[in-house]
Write a structure and sequence with these properties.
- By secondary structure, the chain is mostly helical.
- It is built from eleven helices and no strands.
- This is TetR/AcrR family transcriptional regulator.
Length: 205
């Protein structure tokens, strides 16, 4: 199954399942089990529905009532680290960018930060996995892209701003600091504001 198709079909959609209502507690236990297995160094190929079920303390049937296959489960597990998409207010480019940076640095994302580190080599090696991950993060990247373009259009940002490069300049440091803690002196409180302000010094009109 094409991973991009899987991601597009399952991410952010409510699945209708027959029988008893879904348990949010069971859903979270299953997603956490996937993330814990990944964080422990298990490769995607090595993770099975059986292993996830055992880790979550549920039966395989419980998982299959919620997800049609392992790929769909993996997509939702990775997406769950990010949480719901934030809603920029549209009033200030700076405030919206700060909101978006903070949304990618939630407590759940920090808790499972090493999952992304473990997955990175697999994303590089496996084109399908890379496409799957892109399907998860691209909606967030596009939100930030829209904010930057709006800033150019309304004169808050430079008319000649390279939107894609600016997007990388914001997302890259945030990811590296979260995953690798390159600068131990950096405090989480105020990080998003400091990062956005630094980028805007060169991007502002």
């Amino acid at each position: 199954m094409n991973a991009m198709t899987t991601a597009a079909n399952v991410t952010g959609q409510d699945r209708k399942t027959p029988g008893r209502p879904r348990s949010a507690q069971a859903d979270e236990a299953i997603l956490d089990a996937v993330l814990e297995l990944l964080g422990a160094g298990h490769s995607v190929a090595a993770i099975s529905i059986e292993a996830v079920a055992a880790k979550a303390g549920v039966g395989k049937a419980t998982i299959y009532r919620r997800w049609p296959n392992k790929e769909a489960l993996l997509v939702d597990a990775v997406a769950s680290m990010k949480g719901p998409l934030p809603e920029p207010t549209g009033q200030s480019v700076r405030d919206d960018l700060v909101l978006l940076v903070k949304a990618n640095r939630t407590g759940r994302a920090r808790r499972y930060g090493k999952v992304t580190v473990c997955l990175m080599p697999e994303f590089v090696r496996d084109e399908n996995l890379h496409s799957m991950y892109q399907a998860v993060i691209e909606p967030r990247r596009d939100l930030m892209r829209q904010v930057l373009r709006r800033g150019v259009a309304n004169g808050e940002l430079r008319a000649d701003l390279d939107v894609e490069l600016t997007l990388l300049m914001i997302a890259g440091p945030s990811m590296m600091q979260s995953l690798l803690h390159w600068n131990p002196a950096v405090q989480e409180e105020g990080f998003a504001e400091a990062l956005v302000d630094s980028v805007l010094r060169g991007a502002a009109a």
